[in-house]
């Protein structure tokens, strides 16, 4: 039969399930210090156990969700800015092209008008 953590404490398996990650990931993050003061060695039944504070883990999850929401908002903002810049560049390119087309049409129309005048003078 498995170990049951006292009230207010979570085992590694329970903490990993709450965070939505695997045990190896949980251990790796703990070793890196990602979880800060969530992990405690608690003496239960004469034995030291690695347990997670339920209250602090919930606070950590809420903080991570807030950080994720901020990161998502920054990413969306960056995508919008990039899209606006790209659209402005395309619009500027189209305007430049239309200006060049207008100049070409004027030049062609001017040549045609000059040719028409020459024909009238020659006749």
Task: Please identify the oligomeric state.
Answer: single chain
Largest beta sheet: strand ordering? 1-3-2
Distance between the termini: 115 Å
Mean pLDDT: 80
Strand content: 5-15%
**SSE series:** EHHEEH
Shape annotation: rod-shaped
SS element count, helices = 3
Give helix % range: over 70%
Largest sheet: 3 strands, antiparallel
Strand elements, count: 3
The number of domains is 1
Low-pLDDT stretches are none
Tell me the radius of gyration. Answer: 35 Å
* Secondary structure category: alpha+beta
Would you kindly provide a written description of the structure presented here, covering whatever features stand out?
It is a single chain. This protein is an alpha+beta fold and 123 residues long. It has one domain (9-122). Helix content is 71%, strand content 12%. It is built from three helices and three strands, in the order βααββα. The chain has a three-stranded antiparallel beta sheet with strand order 1-3-2. Helix 1 crosses helix 2. The longest helix has 69 residues, at 54-122.
